[in-house]
Amino acid sequence: MSDHDTDGPAVHEEPADGPRETSDRHLPVLLDRCVELLAPALSVPGAVYVDCTLGMGGHTEAILERLPEVRVIGIDRDPQALELAGARLERFGSRFTGVHAVYDEIGDVVAEQGLTGVQGILMDLGVSSLQIDERERGFSYAQDAPLDMRMDSTASLTAADVLNTYSERDLARILREYGEERFASKIARSIVAKREARPWERSADLVDLVRACIPAATRKGTGNPAKRTFQALRIEVNGELEVLERALPAAVEALAVGGRIVVESYHSLEDRLTKRELGRGAVSSAPHDLPVEPETHKPYLSLLTRGAEEADEAELERNPRSASVRLRAAERLRPTPTHMLTRTER
Q1: 294 near 325, Cβ under 8 Å?
Q2: Which residues bind S-adenosyl-L-methionine (predicted)?
Q3: Which parts are annotated binding residues?
């Protein structure tokens, strides 16, 4: 999924002549850099690329256009995104396959396509332009909408459910851990007090409550004060961090030797998990006191970026939603040693 902005999406108006085309609504973040990193691995005959977060298909479209021999599997949990991306990519015929799944299911998706490994993987995390721009999805705090925030509209849990049923303690924990909100306890206490009079239904009411809970001096110059609360709720509703924690090792295991993975994160919690998972594969697992490094303890990944890359000025001007992106990438050198596999991968 692309086009994220943890500092707050702007309100988007449809043009006078009707809804925008999918490509007009979608500016893929760091598109050229993603293709540049993935292209060497996708140059082999029969190469397959997995877009774990298809969104509206911007990154996938570029791969299909620039690398005409590559086949793409696009995964998304959002049925609407799959429908729109499928229409956008229809001209590529059998080279594109869309799959309704959550991206931690990448191992199963690859196996169901009859493959033992793929050559390229992209994870463009967070909330997509489609979800931000569709008012009724409730992701944007810039416009009033039902408190929904489901990436998969067929799922049951909504943001309103969280606000109306979670305990004050759990709400405070979510706001603190997922939103890194300094005033988590005060906001949680206010949420519970207000729902005693009337259930939570609309996003504008939540924005007003959060604004009232955060001192004016603290709010100054920090953007919309509700951004951290909305981020926390979205992460909870969609289980984003739990999914990512499972998806990262599963994606590495889906890579063939020589394959490459690119991950675009949009807040520190995502980037921390990505850094940890790619980093553990890029160092020796041998005890420090061994005189010779056993083959089975050598790194199985090579990092392709020095730390996390950010958007430059040209990218920021072209696509303001790239402001918070952190990109990391790695290449598989060899199979993962058995002792480095997680329990679910063995």
Answers
A1: no
A2: 57-59, 76, 103, 124, 131
A3: 57-59, 76, 103, 124, 131
